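Supplementary Text 2. Reproducibility record for the structural model of the 467-residue chain.

All settings were left at their defaults, and a single model was retained for analysis rather than an ensemble. We include the record here because the model underlies the residue-level annotations in Supplementary Table 4.
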Amino acid sequence: MIKSDFGLFGLGVMGKSLSRNLAQKGFKISLFNRHVSDVEVDVAKHFKEAHPELKTAEAFDDIEAFVASLASPKKIMLMVNAGKTIDIVIDSLLPFLSENDIIIDGGNSNYKRTKERFTYLQAKGIEFIGTGVSGGEEGALKGPSIMPSGTKDAYNNVAKYLETIAAKDKNNLPCCTYIGPEGSGQFIKMVHNGIEYVEMQLLAEVATILKHKGKNPEEIANTLDSFKITADSYLLEITSNILRKKEGDSWLVEKILDKAGNKGTGNWATIASAELGVPNTLIASALFARYISFYKDERVQLYNQFTKKSVSRLNVDDKDLLNAYQFARTINHYQGFKLIHEASKELNWNLNLSEIARIWTNGCIIRSSLMEDLVAVFKETNDVLTSATIANNIIGCKPAIKRVVSDCVLSDVPTPALSEALQFFNGITTQNSSANIIQAQRDYFGAHTYQRIDDASGKFHHTNWIS
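Retained model, structure tokens:
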């Protein structure tokens, strides 16, 4: 038997799409899916039979035979659920692997666990590549954005496979690049998902504002379509499509229960922000908005208890709404890339922000015209808000978001992400903040000391506040 170039372990939605993508690009692959009696039987075999492009693929439900079918160094990509399942799979593969074989984790694993697995496998002579993959089912099939990390040598051994199946940017370069060491690829995928949380929340808020202006879903979609001229993005496009979808004579979106789930990456990104001391307030706002949505019964009860007075329709101008949306999106991307930059410094990853933005210009969920602009911005600075072009846009959009947020507050329309974008910007551009009061309070009750603005030495002082 001619050995396979590449192995896919796990044939869920993403695993199946990536398998077909690899086969369509001419690679000989081996497929594995577990055997569970009466539940998962001959999954790989049936999947192969269902798709002509997999004619030369090998299908297995036996791990030893699957590994033996691969050419050395063996390259195996895991597409299984993050968490303990990854560790179970790694341990099941190890008896059949040899030095310099490569395991690629393509799931949404926590970057800290990726670092631990990297160290564990390095001690056994096995390379481990933690890889973020974005694009969903369609992206995995047609070309996702891929974010691999590990040793550079290990990446070089799998680069032709990952770069070939990746989406292509506007210069026909693959939306896949070597990110950095250890768990850096999983880290930036985590931040990618955090940015995604905010982009989704902002669009939900924009749609809600337009609904409060009296527009139906079709009219809201028309307004969103008009935004594409200056604010085009994948999420904007699909939101417009969602709003137009009808079921019979009714719009489907109006029949969907307003409880939003999450799979943990927004939570991890919020925790990482706190651990690194980075004020990524928008990801937290978007995450907590989802948490609030889940309290549906309580929200209904409290709505009835605190019945809102009738208010007039919102008088928000569509142009103002577009500018407010653009303002908030800019702050979202500033915060997301700030988190990446600070992690890179803290963990000595030496990440390239421009290259990260570039591989996010196609294939991934957060691809947008703004992301394309940031590729050039990050060649000049690591701080979005110091770019002259970005700064001018922010200055031009700020009056609009002030009007939009103010009108929503007065009309009791919740806009947590839009509001937080404005509050954060006001905070980050405040020269003298209220933190001097907080530091004095800390010194008063806990003798935590403080520094003085009239003492250039940086010495810490303590005051006996009672005397």
